[in-house]
Amino acid sequence: MEKRASGVLMHITSLPGKQGVGTFGQEAYNFVDFLVETDQTYWQILPLTTTSYGDSPYQSFSATAGNTHLIDLELLCKQGYLAKEDFETVNFGDDLENVDYARIFEARRPILEKAVAKFMQSADNQKALAEFEKEATWVKDYAEFMAIKEFFGNKALQEWDDKAVVRREEAALETYREKLKDVITYHKVTQYFFYQQWADLKAYANEKGIKIIGDMPIYVSADSVEVWTMPELFKVDAEKNPLCIAGVPADSFSDDGQLWGNPIYDWENHKKTNYAWWVYRIKEGIKLYDLLRIDHFKGFSDYWEIRGDYKTANDGSWQPGPGRALFDVVRDELGELPIIAENLGYIDAKAEQLLTDTAFPGMKILEFGFYDTEGKSIDAPHNCNKNSVAYNGTHDNEVVNGWYDNLTDEQKAFVDAYTHRHEGEPITQTMLRTLFATVSDIAIATMQDILDKPAESRMNIPNTVGGNWQWRMLKEDLTDERKAFLKDITALYCRKNTFK
Predict the structure, then answer these.
(1) What positions carry a catalytic annotation?
(2) Which of 49, 152, 266, 311 has the fewest CB atoms found within 10 Å of its own CB?
(3) Looking at residue 500, what is its pLDDT?
(4) Average per-residue pLDDT in the chain?
(5) How many CA atoms lie within 13 A of 89 on its CB side?
(6) Which NCBIfam families would you find in this protein's record (predicted)?
């Protein structure tokens, strides 16, 4: 990990542009140029995986397949797979500051189908696809899963009408492979487009000295290709229904706790395979990103298991996770890895010990640190440690303006005094100064705070469905003054990227 560096948290979907959602197109390259211009080192993003009901990148149909909403149509046009008129007059959404997922879900599919058909007309392209399939060994199962899922009206795996194909009986699989071969091809080719465009964008960023921090959710969805093809890795019944699900008990986000709905891993079976799937999954993550943030790291020391007859997320119990053994195997197989541990939530002595044992940098959230006006919080700026990544907040927290507005008068007075806030200084700038001044090796600013955006720009409210993951920046919001402020605090607090 670089020492004394900084970066920006901004998901691809939040980039500006004319396609209804941020993509891997020109605006992504412009964002890299902005990071270079302001002397940043890191671009942190959310998971690039597919999204399902609720549009969350943490509930995906696959641990590996990419979100096809991010495929840029202009780039496909430049490659000759689309004509401008195929997409230029399409309405992808009327609100430039919010993604209309329902609309882009409907609008993008026929356009991508045209691109796939054009792509498949070339023998060279068919060879390139075959090479991609050899490398991306997961894509065959994924494409079949999605094609069959669509055939059953996009219903969840457990609700498919044909239980023989839920159980993966070979005769049933062969029937659907033949019946749905064109749709299967569509899903393979769009994954090829996704991975090609992402590889080009990441290469551009790396050439400019920008490193990508990616995100690996700890769990996969019950409605996923992994549960379909590898049910032995999860606590599910013969029809792939979860016997117990993941979540957390009552916390600051919900008195009833959080019901995530993901199936719990059968850790005994993972241990029997010497954690082969985890080694594979982390290896794939390191291919995609330069640093890998592992979500909900607490779940590896012990996890909250909610039984099938639950009424709320509080109807559960703590169960032991794989602990250090998993990461020892990963280190033996893959060597020392650039991993960041999301050590937030119920961080007890057991979770702290796992973080110490792995030596991964953990995370500090300064917003949490100011609730205690005596400065005793482990997230207070003076309690940050070098081997950590500091944030004012992440995608799950309020943006600084919303957070500050909701503080008590006593808390606001404490923040203002502690940070030496100047009269008239926007609280976003105050908190960004404080963040960059911490001793944490890496400081990551959210783009909303750099742009001084209001509470409504928050990316996600945990334990809620709908209205999340929608925020997009407007190009004109990124003024020269905001760039200059970011560049100045990066230099002042010795976080300047020395790549150039």
Answers:
(1) 295, 342, 396
(2) 311
(3) 63
(4) 95
(5) 3
(6) malQ (TIGR00217), PRK14508.1-1 (NF011078), PRK14508.1-3 (NF011080)
Q: What are the backbone dihedrals phi and psi of residue 245, each rounded to the nearest 5 degrees, phi first?
A: -130, 165
* Widest Cα–Cα separation across the chain: 73
- Residue 34 CA: distances (Å) to CA of 47, 208, 210, 219, 479: 22, 11, 11, 33, 11
The candidate with the shortest Cα–Cα distance to 73, out of 59, 47, 92, is: 92
Confidence band of 23 (pLDDT split at 50, 70, 90): very high
The encoded tokens of residue 7 equal 């970066």
Q: What is the pLDDT of residue 193?
A: 98
Ranges of beta strands (E only) in 252-393 are 258-263, 291-294, 302-307, 316-320, 339-341, 362-365, 388-391
List, in order of start, the domains of the chain with CATH numbers.
5-222+284-299+338-368+392-487 (3.20.20.80)
**pLDDT, average across residues 42-50:** 97
pLDDT surpasses 70 at 307: yes
3-state secondary structure 445-477: EEHHHHCCCCHHHCCCCCCCCCCCCCECCCHHH
Q: Which residues contact 367 (CB under 8 A, 6 or more apart)?
A: 379, 392, 393, 397, 398, 400, 403
Which residue blocks in 346-479 are alpha helix, DSSP H?
349-358, 366-369, 400-405, 409-418, 427-437, 447-450
**Phi and psi of 364, rounded to 5°?**
-125, 135
Report in angstroms the alpha-carbon separations of 41 from 7, 23, 342, 497: 6, 21, 20, 5
Average pLDDT score over residue span 95-111: 95
Higher pLDDT, 369 or 259: 369
